[in-house]
Amino acid sequence: MLNRVDRRSQLKCLQTCIEMLSKGCSVLFFPEGTRSKDKVLGGFKKGAFSVAVKAGVPVVPITLIGTGNVMPSGRESQMYASPVKIVVHPPIQTAGKDADQVCAEARKAVASGLPRDLVGIGSVTDNM
Q1: Alpha-carbon span 108 to 69, nearest angstrom
Q2: How far is residue 74's CA from residue 76's CA, in Å, rounded to a whole number?
Q3: Which of 24, 39, 44, 114 is at a distance of 20 to 30 A from 64, taking alpha carbons?
Q4: Of 59, 36, 35, which is closest to residue 46 (Cα–Cα)?
Q5: pLDDT tens string 61-75
Q6: Angle at the Cα of 95 (from 121 to 88), degrees rounded to 5?
Q7: Around Cβ 102, how many Cβ atoms within 10 Å?
Q8: Other beta carbons within 10 Å of 31
Q9: Chain centre to alpha carbon of residue 115
Q10: b/e for 66-100, b at 16 or more Cβ within 10 A?
Q11: Are 115 and 85 in contact (CB under 8 A)?
């Protein structure tokens, strides 16, 4: 479990992910790092993309539409029945790229699957 305020916990989590990837496992990140109350796509944190670049594995961006109705922000202990649309985008290769480039490409892919009013203006944030 990741403790967001403990840098050691963050680094240990990222190292564990790199080890899992090296063994052929897949890992799942939510690169915004939090849920937005207005359902608008926020900036992405670079941690997931740093892991992918270091491990030399592709990133498969996924757009989730409607999850805010299933589990509203601030009420994560409550779930409601509601349709969710899942858009799986083509893999982004990481070879020869840095985490910022992969992060920007992934955010662009995720945004392409959203209605325009949910895209927002955020981009990459420096925090994990």
Answers
A1: 23
A2: 6
A3: 24
A4: 59
A5: 999 998 888 887 777
A6: 50
A7: 24
A8: 21
A9: 18
A10: eebeebeeeeeeeeeeeeeeeeebeebebeebebe
A11: no
3-state SS track over 9-34: HHHHHHHHHHHHHHCCCCCCCCCCCC
pTM, 2 dp: 0.83
Which tokens in the block code for residue 56?
């030399």
Would you state the structure tokens that stand for residue 124, as one six-digit string? 């990459």
Q: Which residue has the tokens 């994560």?
A: 76
- Tokens standing for residue 100: 């910022």
User: Given this model, what pLDDT does residue 122 score?
Assistant: 59
Q: Are 17 and 47 in contact (CB under 8 A)?
A: no
Residue 108 buriedness (CB in 10 A; 0-12 / 13-18 / 19+)? middle
Q: What number of CA atoms fall less than 13 Å from residue 13's CA on the CB side?
A: 16
Q: Which residue has the tokens 């994990």?
A: 128
**How confident is the model over 99-106, as a mean pLDDT?**
96
